[in-house]
């Protein structure tokens, strides 16, 4: 369990993290989302005792990182910067870490197997691909069998196989009752991996809720209906509190009625339906809508955002 209370970090004039309070709970994967420069890495570094808060506190299992007698056994981390000596083999790197932390040698072989590095463990880490390097980083994080894992952009640059592998691994670790805290800009992947989201913008907390709630909140109550008798259906459904847009000859977008109500009305008037789809936002759409004002480094607005904006204002 990770608990931040009023966590704040100032670098000169820059307030990188601004009074963050949140709890990352065990038994689930929590996604940490936010635009570039929102303060995610700074927050993760403070959790790991690599940066000192200007004010506020952050604890892992009730104590700050520095107060733990055996911190590696409490929390394992994969941060963006790789800190592995390139001339060492993966096995020697893990053996050196294990020796320093008083971890038995057999555990090194266990984690090598867990991350699928058995074949390559004696090769120099410097010769590894990005994906293999990430596996070494994850093996290091898992070495002391910690209850809490913190991973900053673990899927960055990985191929689809590697991305899928990390997803399955993290979900499995959460199912074992561990706390898994993960940052990523890859929204489609985050949607598949995380059960809960914490969203920050300009150092501040924007959301702390379940993935399902976050997406549902951003979903419009539009229902897309396709019918060869679209005009007849529109006339039938029209009424107070109902808005209907004819988006194509055979397609309506209806707001103000549930798909059950539309289906029942259509059936009673013997109108044929080809499609009846409630519109659900994607995580990316929900995230974009929330963080639009919190983006520090913005490129021109992409077509995806425009599409969503017109969908919600239509
Ligand atoms: N050591 C530092 N000295 C000065 N400013 C810093 C330092 N570390 C981070 N910052 C600033 O603090 C803000 C938050 O940075 P941080 O790296 O935590 O954001 P982030 O959410 O992890 O971004 P990204 O998604 O790009 O990794 C940024 O404006 C950054 O420039």
UniProtKB/TrEMBL annotation:
Signal peptide: none annotated. Residues 2-227 form the ABC transporter domain. Keywords: ATP-binding, Nucleotide-binding, Transport. CDD domains: ABC_BcrA_bacitracin_resist. The keyword Nucleotide-binding applies. GO terms for molecular function: ATP binding; ATP hydrolysis activity. InterPro entries: AAA+_ATPase, ABC_transporter-like_ATP-bd, P-loop_NTPase. PANTHER family: ABC TRANSPORTER, ATP-BINDING PROTEIN (PTHR43335). Belongs to the ABC transporter superfamily. This is ABC transporter related.
């Amino acid at each position: 369990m990770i608990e931040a209370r009023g966590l704040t970090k100032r670098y000169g004039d820059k307030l990188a993290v601004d009074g963050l309070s949140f709890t990352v709970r065990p038994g689930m994967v929590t996604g940490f989302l936010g635009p570039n420069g929102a303060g995610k890495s700074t927050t993760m570094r403070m959790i790991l005792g690599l940066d000192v808060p200007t004010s506020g506190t952050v604890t892992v299992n009730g104590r700050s990182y520095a107060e733990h007698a055996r911190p590696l056994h409490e929390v394992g981390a994969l941060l963006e910067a790789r800190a592995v000596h390139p001339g060492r083999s993966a096995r020697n790197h893990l053996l050196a870490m294990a020796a320093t932390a008083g971890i038995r040698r057999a555990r090194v072989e266990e984690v090598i197997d867990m991350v699928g590095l058995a074949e390559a463990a004696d090769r120099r880490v410097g010769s590894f691909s990005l994906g293999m390097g990430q596996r070494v980083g994850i093996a290091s994080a898992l070495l002391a069998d910690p209850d809490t894992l913190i991973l900053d952009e673990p899927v960055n640059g990985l191929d689809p196989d590697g991305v899928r592998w990390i997803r399955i691994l993290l979900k499995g670790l959460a199912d074992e009752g561990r706390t898994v805290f993960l940052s990523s800009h890859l929204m489609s992947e985050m949607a598949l991996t995380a059960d809960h989201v914490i969203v920050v913008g300009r150092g501040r907390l924007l959301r702390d809720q379940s993935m399902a709630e976050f997406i549902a909140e951003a979903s419009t109550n539009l229902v897309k209906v396709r019918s060869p008798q679209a005009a007849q259906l529109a006339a039938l459904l029209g009424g107070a509190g109902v808005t209907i847009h004819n988006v194509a000859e055979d397609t309506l977008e209806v707001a103000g009625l549930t798909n059950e109500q539309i289906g029942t009305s259509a059936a009673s008037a013997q109108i044929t339906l080809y499609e009846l789809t409630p519109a659900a936002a994607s995580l990316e759409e929900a995230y974009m809508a929330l963080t639009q004002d919190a983006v520090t480094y913005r490129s021109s607005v992409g077509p995806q955002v425009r599409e969503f904006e017109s969908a919600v204002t239509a």
